[in-house]
Amino acid sequence: MEPEICIYCKQSGTSREHVAPSSLGGNCVLRCVCESCNKALSSVDQALAENSPVALSKVGLTPADAFTTRLGGDASLTDAAGLSLGVRIKNQMKPEVQPQIFLIGNQLQATAVDRDGISQLISYIDKQINQGTLSNIWVKIDATFTAPRFLMHRSNDCFVSAATAESAKRLLNVLQTQWTDVKKGLQSNEVAHTEHHRPSILMKMTFQPNDEFRGVAKIAFETTALLRGSQFVLRPSFDPIREYIKGDLRLPDIDPADSESLAIDQRFVQRMGKDFSLKFTDQHGVLLMAFPFGIFALVVLYGMHYYKVGLATVQDGDTWMRCYEFSYAKDTHGELNSLEFARRALERFPDQLSINKENIPRLLELLKEK
Ligand SMILES: [Zn+2]
């Protein structure tokens, strides 16, 4: 068998590359991306999946029994005592107070929704103390933290938030030196539980529009490789989009008098406004269209975020269209045939297409016969 050539660097290599990022629920895999490009481009997937408007849809729409979603940034809740409690936004936008320990004066105070959270926290700290690595824990300095906090933000990872490096050190020191007693207290006492009747959650999230757009271009480019084969996208006419995805950003000049503008590279990707409604899937989808002057893609994520991607400007003059759909719950993916595409378009937009709903079955029969 011929060795696969990487569609990004054109060197040989294969790795498991998800066309729609796994973090967005995709489970369709390509083999024509080398390991180093796969790794290098994971930050682009991450920006799209965690630090973009799409990330909010992901957390809101992924079913509770699907994979665990992750939102970038921090979410917090200020309790009655003024403590800033770390909150995780779970699937279906369900907020949950994370297991955490504060140092208030010389007292440690733990908070979690249940004993499971406290058990996880205990086993994590036990492990760090046994390995002698507790003092290596990542510290985030944030002036708003009047009491330093030890937060479990994933089941296998913690970090400290504190106003100063000294107060973070003090918290870790109290944990380390008094751990045996603290652990006993945590195991026997009731978990501090505060009721929040009108909770308001503060979310701090950093949007990365240039990386978000590159992530979208990557999905369109890889869907092209999936549907037309890797040789097709290795053609030189795809070099500009290839370079763009790999990081060749060219930011436009911004008029200094226009204080509202941001420099965003929109050579290849544009977000479509809400008046755009060629809806072909409620999931993730890519509609590829080739015209004599070029190839472009319409990428939709969660059935609501629409982007137009210019993939290649000069082609051989072929005209074709392909449509691919990816589930956002890691279960299915597949090509929508033109009949299926027509059925969805007719059923969803009969008015826009000036079709009487009663005629749809007959129209579909006619299309089938063609
Ligand atoms: Zn490569």
**Helical coverage, percent range:** 25-40%
Give the termini separation: 38 Å
Radius of gyration based on Cα positions: 25 Å
Shape: elongated
Low-confidence stretches: none
Number of strands: 17
Q: Helix/strand/pairing class, anyone?
A: alpha+beta
Count of discrete structural domains: 2
The number of helical runs is 11
Which hetero compounds are present in the coordinates? zinc ion
Biggest β-sheet: strands ordered side by side in the sheet: 12-15-14-13-16-17
Mean pLDDT: 89
Descriptors for this entry?
370 residues, 17 strands, elongated
Give a structural overview.
This protein is of the alpha+beta class and 370 residues long. It folds into 2 domains: 17-47 and 208-250 and 268-336, no CATH class; 74-204, no CATH class. Helix 7 crosses helix 9. It has a 6-stranded antiparallel beta sheet with strand order 12-15-14-13-16-17. A 5-stranded mixed beta sheet has the order 7-6-9-10-8, covered by helices on one side. It is 32% helix and 24% strand. Zinc ion is lined by residues 6, 8-9, 11, 13, 34, 36-37.
Kindly summarize this structure in a few lines.
The chain is an alpha+beta fold. It contains eleven helices and 17 strands.
